Structure formats: structure tokens, C-alpha cells
Amino acid sequence: MKEMIAYCGLNCEKCDAYIATKHNDQALREKTAKRWSEWNHITILPEQINCEGCRMDGKKTVFCESLCQIRQCAMKKDFETCGDCGELKRCKIVEMVIGNSMEALKNLNS
Q: Which domain holds residue 65?
């Protein structure tokens, strides 16, 4: 599986936090922080929008580092991704991601 596929199956290379970090794009950090703050009803600051990939060593957003239940579960079970889990199809933790992204489900089933 590609290294830049997150535990949930999403492609980190398509994530605005990853793109902003890779290109040191402050405007994209600000736009992403604003959008994510609105979506999550919390304050996310532009300086928190730094990530080098969910499964990679290095920087992570606050959410990905410590709040993402999907990442925490897969790491606890020592899985490369949720695709390694026999409970994937009935998992309540990852269901929203794979229910909204056929690409994520495809990545997990690859």
C-alpha cells in the first residue's frame, strides 16, 4: 500500500494540510484552518495546519496526531491501515470516511 494512504484510506497527498506543509503555503494554511474550524465547531489556528502524512514520521495536525480515533485504533492494533482489520465493513469508527469516499474504501481494499 502506498505510504501516503492514511489509516482510514484517504490519500494524504490530496489533503490541504499536507499540501500546505509540502509547499509552505501560508494562504492555504489560513483557508484550511478557517474551513476546519467551521466544520468542527472549534478553533483551529493556521500554525496547526502542518502535516507530513498520517502514517509518516514528522509533523501532524493536532487532530491527526492525537484526536483521530481511526488513527489511534489502527496504531493500537498495529495495522498498516484499517484495511487490515476484519471488522472494516461494520466498523463504526471508520464508517463515515468510507461511506463518503469510494476512493478511501478502494484504497483499503487494495
A: 12-108
Q: Which three cell numbers stand for residue 69?
A: 480515533
The total of structural domains in the chain comes to 1
What pLDDT, in 10s, does the model give residues 23-69? 999 999 999 999 999 988 889 999 999 999 999 999 999 888 888 99
CA 98 to the chain's CA centroid: 12
3 assigned to some structural domain? no
CA 16 from chain center: how many Å?
10
**CA geometry: angle 107, 104, 43, nearest 5 deg:** 140
**pTM score of the predicted model:** 0.87
Cell of 86: 476484519
Whether 45 maps to a domain, the answer reads yes
Please report whether residue 39 resides in a domain. yes
- Give the span between the Cα atoms of 57 and 35, in whole angstroms: 26
